Amino acid sequence: MSEPSASGARYKSLPDKVFDVCNIIFMVCLMIVTLYPFVNMLAVSFNDANDSIRGGIYLWPRMWTLENYNYIFSEASVYQATLISVLRTVLGTVISVFCTAMLAYTLTRPDFVLRKFMSVAFIFTMYFSGGLIPGYLLIKGLGLTNSFWVYILPAVIGVFNLIVIRSFIEGLPEGLLESARIDGAGEFATFLQIVLPLTIPALATVSLFVAVGQWNSWFDVFLYNSSNENLSTLQYELQKILQTTNTSATSAADQFASAQGNVTFVTPTSIRATMTIIASVPIILVYPFLQKYFVKGLTVGGVKG
């Protein structure tokens, strides 16, 4: 009985074949639309800045050069800023995910009498904010300005991430938690030994969200640590380089014209493309390791949230 069904599955009807062809064409077009901007930025970043002014760079550099990358990495502050960005991303992600998971587990416990009130209070913050100035005054009053911890502590709990993890924990079999308590495990031991290993898909999804936010963040550096170069991040340094390039573009163009093409300089377009590649590559390298958890964790959180 299995052979006819298997052989019949190999022969699709005409509507099914048409659907498959259309689906493949659509997905290929979607892939091209998604990848083209990044590939174009990559080509511009490796193309000579003088030549890029002419335009016409699409998928492949016309005049290969590393001058754009040399210009950015010639800034000594970039290396210190990269170290700070890596530290804030790693520490911020680990601390935020762990604390958010603990809070999410607490809000799923029926014996926690303030469970509903706390849930509503956290969700309320998603719709209403104190604003930029009160937030700055709060951070300053807590003594977090000119401090590395201003990158970590204000972002410890993310409400959306809390909902995703809480929804995942609510889907776990209650019998597993009860058996752990019968064996003498306390709430914290149950959380560490039972809950955390079973919520890896949700934790991986939230970790990606937090890591991307921490890595790309630069406005908090501008607000709280702009006067302390030792705490500057890569994104903020790249933003300053781009700003410097924009202000000096006119004088650089004059030098280029007077030298009749013998002077090599960078342009805002080439620097912007190079910055995009530098800022994107670390996240792109991390994503494949979390991809198998991403869809499952996000789907469960979205359905039950």
Characterization of this structure:
- 73% of the residues lie in helices and 0% in strands.
- With 305 residues, it is mostly helical.
- It has a single domain (66-305), classed as MetI-like (MetI-like fold, Orthogonal Bundle).
- Helix 13 runs antiparallel to helix 15 (268-304).
- The longest helix has 37 residues, at 268-304.
- It is flat, with a radius of gyration of 26 Å.
Q: What are the main properties of this structure?
A:
mainly alpha; flat; MetI-like_sf; disordered N terminus; disordered C terminus; 305 residues; 15 helices; single chain; transmembrane helix; MetI-like fold
SSE inventory with pairings:
Blueprint: H1 2-10, H2 14-45, H3 49-52, H4 67-73, H5 77-107, H6 115-127, H7 132-141, H8 159-170, H9 174-182, H10 187-198, H11 200-216, H12 219-224, H13 234-247, H14 249-258, H15 268-304
Q: What is the CATH topology classification name?
A: MetI-like fold
Q: In percent, how helical is the residue content?
A: over 70%
So what's the CATH class? Mainly Alpha
Major β-sheet annotation: none
Mean pLDDT: 83
Brief digest:
Helices cover 73% and strands 0% of the residues. By secondary structure, it is an all-alpha fold.
